Amino acid sequence: MRGVARRSTLTVSGLVLGLSGLLTSTASASEGWLLEQPLDSTANRIYFGVAATGANDAWTVGSTWTGSAEVPVALRWDGTKWADTTLAPVSGAGARLTDVSASAPDNVWASGDHTTEVGTRRPARLPSTAGPRAAASTSTVVQRWDGKVWTDIERPKPPAGMDGFAADITAFSPSSVWLVSSDFDPKTGKSASHLEHWTGKTWEPVEIPQTGARPLQPSRVSGTGDDDLWVAASAASADGKETPFLLHWNGKGWRQAEVPVPSEHSTGWLVNHVVPDGRGSAYVVGRVNEWNATGIPAFVTRWDGQTWRPLPSGPFDEINAAALDGSGKLWTAGWLPGDGHVLMNTWNGTEWRKDALPPEVAKTAEGSSILGFAAVPGTTGVLAAGLGSSGGLQSTWGVIASSGLR
Predict the structure, then answer these.
(1) What gap in Å lies between CA 71 and CA 77, rounded to an integer?
(2) Residue 17 forms part of a structural domain
(3) Where does the record place the region Disordered (predicted)?
């Protein structure tokens, strides 16, 4: 799953988005980052995903709080302005969109989940964790933008007594979309994850190679195309210790590799981000298998199809977002101990460099989070998606920022 903000001042993650010099900005910069929207214009909003197909086409999805329910939102940048688009109707008391993937301006896919309780709000992407105004989810929601309108794409409901969540989505064409979903039992705390493929007409379950008697549970999906697909998964031993794996689909068959971890840990390790780096290679980001990690640094390693090459440890015990920018540099986001505001760390090939959001975020909010990065094709820049929050979830602001696009 995508990372979730873990500090007490911020229990929901969000989305930060910014674009190139075409944007008219009223905000300030910090170490090259531009805040493209004043925070007072994004009050009560949370953005959970970011994607771009070019400097004149980018998307952010999330939800807005009406005072009694979450309502999903999807905003588009068309080269001139950001504007809400009209989503297809969703059933239930509320819903939000937690991820977005786009292969073209007329092929944009968003995933999320329905909520069942009115007057509540809960952390995203962590079904087993209670939080302020915790609510339940009944099933996933998937919608597609065809360049003109959003259409709801029907998905099977989870088994009776279980909640459904969308963990990750990657779209390559209108007839090829990959989804990782999870069914969660709130009574037992157990979950089962699935990899699915949209063929243009239906969702087909996809079996991934297994390892011994321990079933592999997929958690992330990404790639550059149907013949260069990456899936992160993990297998749990009888005592709950997780072992991470990376799987690659080349269009004909699967290849599986166990992900090397920095050290032994009693509960094991998980992969929470896979970042394609050209064809056939990828960065893998992971952490110890604990909620509220104990200060053990997150790891980043690169698989070139033959060998693993670990990167030096960064400052974060959990990396909440990771992606390449338009120039190929790797960006990560997380927190330092004792600080509720997110920091960025970029790898330039030889060393890590820390960066921060513009100071307006810290002046307005008690905490902040970045949940997504996205390169803007045709540029060397990066978009970052996140939010600011105070009083738990009593006050939220969507944050839209950019770096290297002016």
Answers:
(1) 20
(2) no
(3) 108-140
286-322, pLDDT tens digit by residue?
A: 999 987 666 789 999 999 999 999 999 988 988 999 9
Token pair of 117, please?
């309780």
C-alpha 63: how far from chain center: 15
CATH number at residue 386: 2.120.10.70
- Domain membership flag for residue 9: no
pLDDT: which is higher, 341 or 116: 341
pTM of the model: 0.88
Whether residue 13 has pLDDT greater than 50: no
Residue 8, in any domain of the structure: no
212 within a domain of the structure (yes/no): yes
How many domains, the chain? Answer: 1
SS (H, E, C) the chain: CCCCCCCCCCCCCCCCCCCCCCCCCCCCEECCEEECCCHHHCECEEEEEEEEEECCEEEEEEEEECCCCEEEEEEEECCCCEEECCCCCCCCCEEEEEEEEEEECCEEEEEEEEECCCCCCCCCCCCCCCCCCCCCEEEEEEEEECCCCEEECCCCCCCCCCEEEEEEEEEEECCEEEEEEEEECCCCCCEEEEEEEECCCCEEEECCCCECCECEEEEEEEEEECCEEEEEEEEECCCCCEEEEEEEECCCCEEEEECCCCCCCCCEEEEEEEEECCCCCEEEEEEECCCCCCCCCCEEEEECCCCEEECCCCCCCCCCEEEECCCCCEEEEECCCCCCCCEEEEECCCCEEEEECCHHHHHHCCEEEEEEEEECCCCCCEEEEEEEEECCCCEEEEEEEEECCC
